Amino acid sequence: EVQLVESGGGLVQPGGSLRLSCAGYGFTLSTYWMSWVRQAPGKGLEWVANIKPDGSERYYVDSVKGRFTISRDNADNSLYLQMNSLGVDDTAVYYCARGGARSGYFLYWGQGTLVTVSS
Amino acid sequence: QSVLTQPPSASGTPGQRVTISCSGSSSNIGSNTVNWYQHFPGTAPKLLIYTNNQRPSGVPDRFSGSKSGTSASLAIGGLQSEDEADYYCAAWDDSLKAWVFGGGTKLTVL
């Protein structure tokens, strides 16, 4: 059974940093594009970033460029999101999702991890 | 303001057919396939329709998708109370080099 399990969320002050992790189970993460998608309180889904299977291509939503870095460790079947210079607008539930290629789709999702940016 | 435009709400009575629209542009829906997701608050989103009109295993055939030009739509036939959820369309945008989602449509079953 395919499972994605996020961790690393929590409360952080504005300007702070946080690193999210996503562990994949039941499939070989190295063969898939992977993505992060978030949902701010009371708002809709927003794609954050994706990364090619070999890590050679990464794309970001404009609002996080230069602050967030998506990475992966295929040997560990894991995906990461390093978030720096966090602002209150980054408060959201962050979902890890399998997929993200241009012609693809997000078939499997994790349960999400809550990131709260507040002083 | 979302790149893909959806109506914020839709409603219907049990057994009715409801359609949710998703409007985009030549750089997203006009060039790429559209996917639809169902989301119950507090849970993981679920893929409902992929590649414009394909259903993943386990999704009832009451759900169908279509695409024409720069617009797409999701149709739900034989509406049931458990269909009450938020629905999102999504597509890759070649200009932004990003996935874009619609703002979401909250479906109410009256």
Secondary structure tally: strands of chain A: 11
Radius of gyration of chain A: 13 Å
What do the pLDDT scores of chain B average to? 97
| CA-based gyration radius of chain B | 13 Å
Major interchain interface with per-chain residue totals: A-B, 22 and 28 residues
Query: What oligomeric state do these chains adopt?
Result: heterodimer
Largest sheet of chain B: 6 strands, mixed
Helix coverage percent of chain A:
under 10%
Question: How much beta of chain B, percentage-wise?
Answer: 35-45%
Instruction: Tell me the fraction of residues in β-strands of chain A, as a range.
Output: over 45%
- Structural class of chain B, by secondary structure, is mainly beta
Output the structural class of chain A.
mainly beta
The biggest sheet of chain A amounts to: 7 strands, mixed
Low-confidence segments of chain B, ≥5 residues, pLDDT <50? none
How many helical elements of chain B? 0
Please trace the helix and strand order of chain A, writing H or E for each element. EEEEEEEEEEE
Observed structural traits:
heterodimer, A: 119 residues, mainly beta, 11 strands, 0% helix, B: mainly beta, six-stranded mixed sheet, 9 strands
What does this structure look like?
- The complex is a heterodimer of chains A (119) and B (110).
- Chain A has 119 residues and is mainly beta.
- Chain A is 0% helix and 49% strand.
- Chain A has strands at residues 3-7, 10-12, 18-25, 34-39, 45-51, 58-60, 68-73, 78-83, 92-98, 108-109, 113-117.
- Chain A is globular.
- The mean pLDDT of chain A is 96.
- Chain B has 110 residues and is mainly beta.
- Chain B is built from no helices and 9 strands.
- Chain B has strands at residues 9-12, 18-23, 35-39, 46-49, 63-68, 71-76, 86-93, 98-101, 105-109.
- In chain B, the strands form 2 sheets. In chain B, strands 1, 3, 4, 7, 8 and 9 form a 6-stranded mixed sheet that branches. In chain B, strands 2-6-5 form a 3-stranded antiparallel sheet, with no helix packed on it.
- Chain B starts with 8 loop residues before the first strand and ends with a strand.
- The chains are: A mainly beta (119), B mainly beta (110).
- The A-B interface holds A 35, 37, 44-47, 50, 59-62, 95, 100, 102-103, 105-107, 109-112 and B 2, 32-33, 35, 37, 39, 43-47, 50-51, 56, 86, 88, 90, 92, 94, 96-104.
